[in-house]
Amino acid sequence: MGILKLEGEGAYDVALYTEEKHDDILRRVRAVGGERPMSHYEITSLAKNNFRVVTVNIYNPYVKDEEVRAFLGRYMDNVSSARHLKDSLGFWNGRRGFQALLREDPKGHGGYLHPPAMFSLGADRGMLFYARQPPFCRRCTAYGHIFASCSTRKCRFCGSEEHEARDCDKPEACHGCGSSAHLWRGCPARQRAYASAA
Q: In this protein, which residues make up the domain named CCHC-type (predicted)?
C-alpha cells in the first residue's frame, strides 16, 4: 500500500496492491459511515469503471463553467464543478477539468454513454477528452471509428442519414438541452447574468 499526500489538492492518494484489498477497505469505510474520524474525509474510489476526469477545451474564455457543466450533465452523472487548468507559467489556457460518472448504456461503446468529443454551445465550439475515450468520428459524431474510415452520410444537426448538415432544413435545436422549442441563447438551463436581465 502506498500513500501520497497531494499538497495543492488538499487530498491523499492511497494506492492498494490488490483489488481484494481495495474492496475490503471500502467495505470498512462504508460500515463506519459518518462516525469520527472518517466523518472528516470524503472517500472517492478511482477504481470505478465509469469514473472519468474530463478535460473540456473551449476557446472562448467567457463561456461560463455552469453552462459547460449543464452540457456534460446531459450525458454524465455527478458532474463536479469546474477546475481551471493552467500552463507551466500559471496562466489559464482555456481548459476546464471536471470529474463525472459515465451513464450506463447497453447500446453504447463499452457499455457506457459517451459525450460527443466535439460540440457547440451557441456559437462557441468545444472539444473534450478523457482517459479511455473511444475513437470519435467528426463526420457522423459516433464513437468507434474515425473520420478517415467513415462512410456514413449523416446530418449532425437532426441525425438523419438521408442528408448531410449543409442540406438540413429541420429547425435548429438548443445545444444545451437538445430542445427544438428554443435556441441556446434562450435556454432556461443557462444562468442569466445580472447585466443581461437588467
A: 136-152, 154-170, 173-189
Q: Round to whole Å and give the CA distance between 135 and 133.
A: 7
User: How would you label 129-148 residue by residue, b for 16+ Cβ within 10 Å and e otherwise?
Assistant: ebeebeebbebbbbbebeee
What would the grid cell of residue 79 be? 458532474
Read off the C-alpha cell for 145. Answer: 471509428
What SS3 class is residue 12? strand
Beta carbons of 142 and 153 less than 8 angstroms apart:
no
Are 112 and 120 within 8 A, CB to CB? no
121 is written with which cell numbers?
454551445
The per-residue pLDDT for range 50-60, each reduced to its tens digit, is 889 999 999 89
The highest-level CATH class for domain 51-186 is: alpha beta
- Banded model confidence at residue 115, pLDDT cuts 50, 70, 90: very high
The full set of domain ranges for the chain reads 2-40, 51-186
The pLDDT tens digits for 148-186 are 888 877 776 676 778 777 788 877 777 767 777 887 778
The C-alpha atoms of residue 54 and residue 96 are separated, in whole angstroms, by 8
